[in-house]
UniProtKB/TrEMBL annotation:
Requisite cofactors: Mg(2+)
Binding-site residues, ATP: G19, C20, G21, K22, S23, T24, R125
Comment on bound cofactor: Binds 1 Mg(2+) ion per subunit.
UniProt-recorded name of the protein: Shikimate kinase
Oligomeric form and interacting partners: Monomer.
Gene3D superfamilies: P-loop containing nucleotide triphosphate hydrolases
One GO CC annotation: cytosol
Record PANTHER family: SHIKIMATE KINASE, SHIKIMATE KINASE 1, CHLOROPLASTIC
Enzyme type, top EC level: transferase
Family matches, as CDD domains: SK
EC annotation from Swiss-Prot or TrEMBL: 2.7.1.71
Pfam families per record: SKI
Amino acid sequence: MVWDPNWLERPIALIGLSGCGKSTLARLLARALSWPWYDTDAAVAAAAGMSVADLFQTYGEAEFRARESAALCEALREAQVIATGGGIVLQPENRQMLHDRATVIWLDASDATILARLAVDAEERPLLRGDAATRLAALRAARAPLYAALADLTVQTDGVTPIELVQQIITALRKGKEERAG
Ligand SMILES: Nc1ncnc2c1ncn2[C@@H]1O[C@H](COP(=O)(O)OP(=O)(O)OP(=O)(O)O)[C@@H](O)[C@H]1O
Ligand SMILES: O=C(O)C1=C[C@@H](O)[C@@H](O)[C@H](O)C1
Ligand SMILES: [Mg+2]
């Protein structure tokens, strides 16, 4: 598919629960668009010199959220694909920034899919430690309405490969652009 990245005016932000594939998709989508990519979790971890899990343990969630908001603000300065953290929508200022400055794509997946995907590196997700299924259900209940309200586009990822998802997203963005152009 021929793709003109100049059609896209705004950064693209991927939102959704842990394990829905934001980090994986951000790299692939960026490559397909010849855009840079940015991962707020990776940026916060790199700046702190420790993993997100260790940052939670050492400084607490509130400090992580403050650093995450700063990373999002930085990321939105550039036309790039941004993988956000699963909890990015919790802060009202983050929701405002995403609404004002990004094309927002919600990557969704069933609980079963997410639990299977995260089984290998569950320890890296501090909010899913312990009874992951119960915790995931609670995170979904609290966050799904926030993801839904922000999303310009919602993509179901169950049983769909990352490469197929990139194609779906590009097709949907192109269609949206054409519809806006009338
Ligand atoms: N469409 C997909 N099909 C199968 N496996 C996938 C898919 N997308 C991602 N995965 C796998 O699921 C796991 C979690 O993906 P990823 O780290 O991209 O999620 P995330 O949304 O960034 O999570 P977090 O919010 O915790 O950073 C990885 O092992 C990845 O390879
Ligand atoms: O769902 C969440 O709140 C989180 C998801 C991850 O991306 C990390 O941002 C961190 O583990 C918190
Ligand atoms: Mg990620």
